[in-house]
Amino acid sequence: MSIGSEINPRTTTQFSLSPQVFVGTDRLYVSLWYSLICTLFISLHLIFIIAIRRLCGWNSKFSFTILLFISIFCIIGLVTILVASLTSLLYLDFRKYKILWQIFGSLAKPSYFTVVSLNVIMTFHRFVYTALPFTASNYLRKSLLKVILAGILLFFLSLVAVLNTEILGVFWVDVIMTWAVSNNHAADIYDLINHISNYGVGIINLVAYTCLFAILIRRKLLSFTRNHEIKMTLQVLCMVVSEFLLFLYWEFTTSKGFDAWEIVKGQTSDLFFYIITILPYLIFNGNVHKQIRATLTSRAARISASSTRENTQMRGRGVFLLRSATIGCTARPLTAVDLFTKSTQ
Description:
single chain, mainly alpha, Rhopdopsin 7-helix transmembrane proteins, 11 helices, about 70% helix, globular, transmembrane, membrane, transmembrane helix, Serpentine receptor class gamma
């Protein structure tokens, strides 16, 4: 995550006294920019979840299960930033609503660190199944994979709890439209964790996937001649290159300060991290495309079946009404005897 996006004033009471970087139309434009990106990315994640929900499972399918969890935590982070940026338009007093800004930070930051952890786990899972295709299931049993997911959830909840205490606080500061960390000894620990996660994003996947492709090429399982191999390579390449570029930007180009343009660039780069894992799947992955088409087809079939039932019911009602009208028209007319009988009753 961008180092410059966590600006660190001396105390939390000074956050509201930070330079008014974004006011008036500037804050409106930045808020709309963040909101537009968040809304678009949330929509893509929802489409992705609908597409892969039937591909999830254990053993070799565990990668899609991890991807499902990645999308869920990305949505948590994106929704939090969306709400925070829109709340900035209300110009609320920072000290009065300090707990609100801290809640935003306690949801956004743990979701980011959890996504990084899930990415590392997914890379490890793929590496094991590539290096040991016949025995990997013996080591990565279903029970172990469940423990890993439970550990990830516990990790997320623990971070949420810690960031809602006085030990360490990360706050959304509307005057600078980004995050700020309370200045105490724990802030150094947070900064260290942030650096480690950045290296995890940029280096681990780069090294792991390079070794993975080397194994496939050495075993002559990858020739780059078949269409699905090319798509798979492009999918991995786009993800790894994007993560490495973000790593370079976060670690070597961002700087702490109150420059408006640098703040917007840093926060935008953080938002793009939430989509770079699943976007290559939406573009290149054939299984995801099949699931999306199947979902659309089944939905269209349900709509068509519902329409057919309604038409059948309408035709049935029409026939019934027609028969009723016909019966009424063909009934014999009343005779003088009938009229007499009615009049005497």
